Amino acid sequence: MFHTAVVNHLVRRTYEETTAEWTAAPFDNDVKTFRLSTWALAMLSVTGLLYFLVMTGIEYTYGTVVATLAMVEAPTSVAIIKAEVADSEDPDAALLTPVEKASEKTPLAEAEFLVIKAQPITASFRTTIRHLVAHGGRRSLLRGAKAALAFHFMHFATTRFIMFIFGRQRSFEPLAAWVAAIVLSRVNMTWTHVVISENSPKRWWLRLPSIQSARKTVPAMALWATAHQLTVLMPSILFQNFGLTRYIEDPESWGQLPGEGRIEVMNRVLLVCVVGLAVEVLILLPAKVTLKRVQASQLPEEYEGIVPFDRTFGGRVVAESAGGKGVLGLLEAWRSFDWAARIRLVKIYLKTGAIQVAVSVLFLGLVYGELRLIMGNTLDKMVATYAEQINSHSRT
Length: 396
Prior knowledge:
Keywords: Membrane, Transmembrane, Transmembrane helix. The protein is mainly alpha-helical. The chain contains 15 helices and four strands.
């Protein structure tokens, strides 16, 4: 509603202020510039800002909150003992449980049990959103957002500080980012705890775990940081080795390529995308699941999980007082995440991506409509001019 009102107002002002400019300085094939009024720029800026906020909200709510809950959720199982009617002709006779009846006639081992495994809350977006809203209101959909912003800001600042110490060399940035992630293990673990636990009156920074507890998660954090850097570096290295950076630095060089050359470049871009996706699914995703489950094993007893959650992960977490390490191991964290949960997590990411694509198409149509209102037939001339330039370069 608000955005529609703003767009209508800006379109009306744009018509008043830009029509004269179009008449005085029509679009020329030799000129690649077009002056827009302040109101036109404001309208497009509002649309761009709204798009950014919507996409960020979708990514965080579904791609972070729901995905994190799916990584730690342990669906509950309910055992039901089948009840039988007492041996009496009285219709109002009391029911006897198999335990009571077995005590008179049969052993307990022969009693009938029915085990029902509850469907995971994160099995669908609808049930997850309803559950979160019921337990924390609409704000619960962005639970942990403040801790997330703090972690990303501190990670950026720490990375830049480390690079400053070592002479701001770009080649050192991956290692600096890796070290920064390790240093901020406590903040990252707090972020996870805020997401997976019930609402707490404490501010997120008051929930920072002890250094001893955070130290137990450092191996998992190092694994995730390594996987994250590989996800960034491997496609980037391929992109540079394939010589694709020049088409970004000089976009006109793309128009100078013959048809076969363009097909070859597009195949290289496709290969880079496939490699990046493979690294993210096969390396980064398991590392992220491992990190979240290891961090969840350190959730303090005073906090309850917002979804069904087994603190011991099937007895794999043994307290230090009982001779254990008090933390979930790296291999155990991934192995205990069964295939049903893995498939459910992949579906969450696919659904999130589909929603983002749909929203992007919607906003693309909105921007096109705004440009049509602002520029009129000039938009068609501009598109035709660029298309003609590309065709002329391809023929040469």
